[in-house]
Amino acid sequence: MAPSQIFDFINHEVSVSLDSTNAFEGPEKLLEIWFADSETCTDSVFSKGTLRDIPLPEIESMLDLVSCKIMSKISSKEMDAYLLSESSLFVFPHKMILKTCGTTATLLCLSKVLELVVEYCGYVYSNLENIHKIFYSRRSFMFPHKQNEIHRCWDNELGWLNKYFPPEQSKAYIVGDLSKDHWYLYLNGNGTVEQSPRVPKAGSQVGYPLSPVISNGACSANDETFEMLMTELDPTASEMFQLSKHLNEFPDMDPETEDYGHLLGQKMISKSGLDSVLDGYARIKHDAYAFTPCGFSSNSIMDDKFYCTLHITPETGWSYASFETNYPSASKTDVLCNVVNILKPGKFCVVHVQEAINEKNSAVDSLRNVCVAGYKRVDQILYDLKFDYSLLYMYFEKEL
């Protein structure tokens, strides 16, 4: 089925004026906040609305604190996907995922997030200490000294996070070889279902907590995230994402309703083959943007409730690309090989985090044995984490 390319919102003013000439730090900071286990459980923490009811201007004000802008948005009945000037934001009824690159200050949004969920969702707590789950992660920075002070080192980030979430419940990891690219992870939260009596929404009848058996069955959904973080991209493969290679491709463009970045982004994702990485697995809706003078970002919604996001910084000397999805059904081995074949990185790490399924994890088992033609696996690390998650980290380098 051909992917849909219908936008729900485009900020033409930001899209037309955006210039990434001074962009340098590709690796993203990834913040994932769960207020409940699923949409069916939001009544336990929200007395009105859900995260998707937060107005667009308020989301923009939150992102202003982080130092990024919304370029466009696509939606489904289950979620909203915002393409940002620096990466992506995904909003579900019960959780939000903010992924930002460059010198953005991702963690500066936490106070504003709390303010918004209290005002627009009726969050039943006055702080974030009772949060269901929170994950914060990032790859090692290329230029850490250029980051905002709270992101300049891992200790600073941990100190900031522990202002909002209980330090005694936190888990923090540095994964991988510290002499090479490595990865940081922070987890916190109580991770339990139905933390408070069911809160009636305005105009509804009073409800009561379900029994533990019914509650867990209704709310739990096995969660997973698959990430690829790539550096030293092949220069020939990276040419596709240089604006100088795509001049005057849309002479009939209507500047009142269209912008070159979004039109070229859609062409890039198709011509590069990146739109087919998950082809055949799901119904897909794409949003893509090509930056000036180079660079590329895309969000995709799959089967209404899963996302895929790609970000590419092709500049020689600090080239970087990331791929991330929470789609559960695709073969992660096939996806990994497809992305590598398109971008041809010199080095890359794979991070797969998955909630345990009956103490078995077939995706991890298959990934642990993956062979990538032309690459050697340097590291493989497996962790059992908080909330019954497992983590697989692998690091690859191109064979000489």
Present the secondary structure layout.
Blueprint: E1 9-10, H1 12-17, E2 29-34, H2 56-66, E3 70-75, E4 80-84, E5 87-91, E6 95-100, H3 110-121, E7 133-139, H4 154-164, E8 171-175, E9 183-188, H5 212-219, E10 224-233, H6 235-238, H7 260-272, E11 284-290, E12 296-302, E13 306-313, E14 320-325, H8 332-343, E15 345-355, H9 362-368, E16 375-384, E17 389-398
Antiparallel strand pairs: 1-3, 2-6, 2-7, 3-4, 4-5, 5-6, 7-9, 8-9, 10-14, 10-15, 11-12, 12-13, 13-14, 15-17, 16-17
**Integer tally of domains:** 2
Could you name the CATH homologous superfamily of the largest domain?
S-adenosylmethionine decarboxylase
Given this structure, which CATH class of the largest domain is correct? Alpha Beta
Strand arrangement, largest sheet?
1-3-4-5-6-2-7-9-8
Mean pLDDT: 87
CATH topology of the largest domain: S-adenosylmethionine decarboxylase
From the spread of the alpha carbons, the general shape counts as: globular
**Radius of gyration, taken over Cα atoms and rounded to an integer in Å:** 21 Å
> SS-based structural class?
alpha+beta
| Strand-residue proportion | 25-35%
What portion of residues is helical?
Answer: 10-25%
The number of strands is 17
CATH architecture of the largest domain: 4-Layer Sandwich
Cofactor: pyruvate
Pathway: Amine and polyamine biosynthesis; S-adenosylmethioninamine biosynthesis; S-adenosylmethioninamine from S-adenosyl-L-methionine: step 1/1
Site (Cleavage (non-hydrolytic)): 86-87
Pfam families: SAM_decarbox
